[in-house]
Amino acid sequence: FRAIFLTTATTVLGLAPIIADKSTQAQFLIPMAISVSFGLLAATLVILILLPALLMIANRIKVYSIYLWNGEKPLPRMVEPAVEGRISSPLIYAIGGLLMIGAFAVLVVILMKVSGLLV
Questions:
Q1: Which residue from 65, 56, 52 is spatially nearest to 95, judged by alpha carbons?
Q2: DSSP letter (8 states) at residue 116
Q3: 25 secondary structure, DSSP code
């Protein structure tokens, strides 16, 4: 968290003087600085908030997929690839992955409708 936050903060604060500059010589740099700084802020929010939430949802999908398939509910840490002795079933991971891709596609469509990019 600290490394991502500090990198974003220093870059955005470093671009702030260019964004606030009123001289005619800097007018062509201002749109670039705005794009980079707000794009970096948006990406940081996605990485620090949306990605962990999606990973938790994926974990729950894996747990409930295994529960529906085998009839026994494993601990959430047992379906994670980094844990030794995990439950490994390619079909379960494929179903969880497809559900995550579908959920992300629905989220993108909703965001595009809200922003007016999709009519």
A1: 65
A2: T
A3: G
d(CA 100, CA 58): 6
Tokens of 48: 């620090």
pLDDT tens for residues 21-69? Answer: 998 888 889 999 999 999 999 999 888 888 888 888 888 888 888 888 8
For helices 30-45 and 2-20, give the axis angle rounded to 10 degrees: 160
Query: At 75, is the secondary structure helix, strand, or coil?
Result: coil
Residue entry with tokens 């379906």: 79
CA distance linking residue 47 with residue 83, whole number of Å: 23
- The single residue listed with the structure tokens 């047992």 is 78
